[in-house]
Every structure is written in C-alpha cells, then in structure tokens.
Amino acid sequence: MLVKTKAIVLQAIKYRDNDLIVRCYTQKSGIKSYLLRGILKSKKGKFRAAMFQPLTQLEIEANHKDKEGLDYLKDAKVARPYASLQTNMYKASILLFLAEILRNSIQEEEENQALFKYLEENLNWLDQAEKFANFHLLFLVQLTQYLGFYPNYTKIDLPYFNLLDGNFQYEEINKYCISNPNSELLKQFLQTNFEQLHHIKLNQTKRKDFLEMLILYYQLHLQGFKKPKSIEVLHQLF
C-alpha cells in the first residue's frame, strides 16, 4: 500500500557496503524500516545519507507491506530543516540520546497521532530553545504519558514515589520507593512545562541522579528496555 506520511528518523544502520537500513517512526503507520540501496555510493539518487540523521523530520512516500520485513521508500524530503539541533554539540548529544530512548520504547506498527505530535512539537521547541539543560529530563517524564506508565500524581503531597507501581505514597514498601531529593524533583517536573523548565535549577550531580532514576523507571515498565549507551555523554555535558 502506497502511503504519504510524516516520519521521524530513529536510526540509520549501514548495510553491506553501500546500503542503509533506516528505521523511522511514522505518523500513519508507527515504526517502519526501509532499505535504501546504494545511498552511500551514488551521488545521483534522490536520497542523501544526511537526510537520515537521528530525529530528522521527513515527509515520505512509501510502500508499506502488511507483513513483517523491510519496506520500500519511494520518495522523501526534509519536512523541517533544523536551525541548531544538528550543529549545536549539546543539542546534538540530546538528539542521539532521545533517538536511542525512542528506539527502545516504541515498537508498535500502528498510528498514534498524539505521540507523533508530542515528538514533533517538542523537537521543534528544542531547536529554538536557548535554555535546555533539563530538556531531556522533562521529555522523558512526559513521554511516559504516551507509553502507558505516567506517574499517578493524585497523592503528590506524599513523600515517597514507588517506581514499581508509579504512585506517590506515605511510606516505603519496597526497594523501588524513592524519597528526597528525586521524589521532590519528580513532583516539580510533573507540574511544569517546557516554557517554565528553566526555573528548575539543577547541578550536574542532581541531574545525573534524576536521569538514572528515570532510566530505572523505564526499565521497570518496558520489557526489554536497555540503558542507553549515550547516557554517559549526557552526564559529561550536562
């Protein structure tokens, strides 16, 4: 079936000598993978390898099969050229990290308009942002809403957050219950948005500890979720 859709690149892997396998999150069909033959060799084709950098936003025309396997990409163009995401070292490191998170988190080959809109809007926000040191933290917190394990904050005033159950509670009942300072930070992130994010002040140690907690939260709720290799780069830069 021939489909025109927006797509966000999650990964491009070299295949054989001159080919790429590109994995995308599409607006209409969820996760899809495409084999691009000869893209690393030919300079005359319609595709360029630079189009498939992590989290590039594309408009594509593709032939999607109903069965598993690689699909055919008929046409593609960059939907929104970034102003700074791929040239600013700090933002580029966030892109690599988030692309790895999304590859580990999203598996469905089905439409999810709300999730696609979330990714699209907030990548565009980061591209324009001047203060973004905590962007990846709020991004991960809010992403859980679309993945099915957003923290239950109906009892947000209670001191402990249970990573296993996703609830705030009065006392510690298992080894996954956390208290200050990470539970208090989580409360702040649950009650803010990207425009107000710069009001949360963190040093490198607090930012690292909170991110490690979020990764554990993802591991507890997503089967097979792996700790991103790129996390160490973020720890060093932020």
Automatic annotation (TrEMBL):
PANTHER family from the UniProt entry: DNA REPAIR PROTEIN RECO (PTHR33991)
Record function comment: Involved in DNA repair and RecF pathway recombination.
Identification of the protein by name: DNA repair protein RecO
Sequence ranges assigned to domain DNA replication/recombination mediator RecO N-terminal in this UniProt record: 1-82
Gene3D superfamilies: Nucleic acid-binding proteins
Gene, per the UniProt record: recO
Gene Ontology cellular-component terms listed: bacterial nucleoid
NCBIfam families cross-referenced by the UniProt entry: reco (TIGR00613)
GO biological process, one term: double-strand break repair
Family label: Belongs to the RecO family.
Pfam family, one: RecO_C
This protein's UniProt keywords: DNA damage, DNA recombination, DNA repair
